Amino acid sequence: MAKSLKPVILENVLLLDAYPELITWEPFRDGVDIHPIYSDENGCSSALLRYQSGSKIPAHKHAGYEHILILAGEQADEENKYKKGQLIIHPPESAHSIYSATGCIVLAIWEKPVKFI
Questions:
Q1: What SS3 class is residue 26?
Q2: Theoretical Cys-Cys bridge with 81: which of 37, 38, 59, 76, CB 3.0 to 4.6 Å?
Q3: Is 45 exposed, middle or buried (0-12, 13-18, 19+ CB in 10 A)?
Q4: For the stretch 91-112, what's the b/e string if a residue is b when 16 or more beta carbons lie within 10 angstroms of its beta carbon?
Q5: Across 4-8, 102-106, 107-111, 113-117, least confident range
Q6: Rounded distance, CA 1 to CA 68, Å?
Q7: Cβ(89)–Cβ(64) under 8 Å?
Q8: pLDDT, tens digit, for every residue of 1-10?
Q9: Max CA distance (Å), the chain
């Protein structure tokens, strides 16, 4: 029997800055929570990430593309500061760490798993 392919639908993601309780969050890193959306056998995955003020993600390298859409707040890496509404696409083999002074919520889509360095 063929597997049923159904879309994943998340309601009200643009309201998460005001109502973070709309999503069930799990601990991911110190000061960072995650809401996994999907992952597949090839390593492609996506999640919502919620950073508390002052939280960090250590340096990591991307084997594939990473897409980050800032839904609320702002975050920074070694190159720039990114604000609500910005879409950042990191190419394969890029590396960076992440810091959020104010806290933020992002949609992250990874083509392949990341490797912490």
A1: strand
A2: 76
A3: middle
A4: eeeeebebebeebbbbbbbbbe
A5: 4-8
A6: 36
A7: no
A8: 455 678 988 8
A9: 50
Amino acid present at 49: L
**What are the domain boundaries of the chain?**
32-116
Assessment of whether the complete model's pTM goes beyond 0.85? yes
d(CA 28, CA 35): 9
Please check whether residue 21 is in contact with residue 63, taking contact to mean a CB–CB distance below 8 angstroms: no
Distance CA 88, CA 104 (A): 14
Superfamily of domain 32-116: Jelly Rolls (2.60.120.10)
Alpha helices in the chain (DSSP H): none
First to last CA, the chain: 42
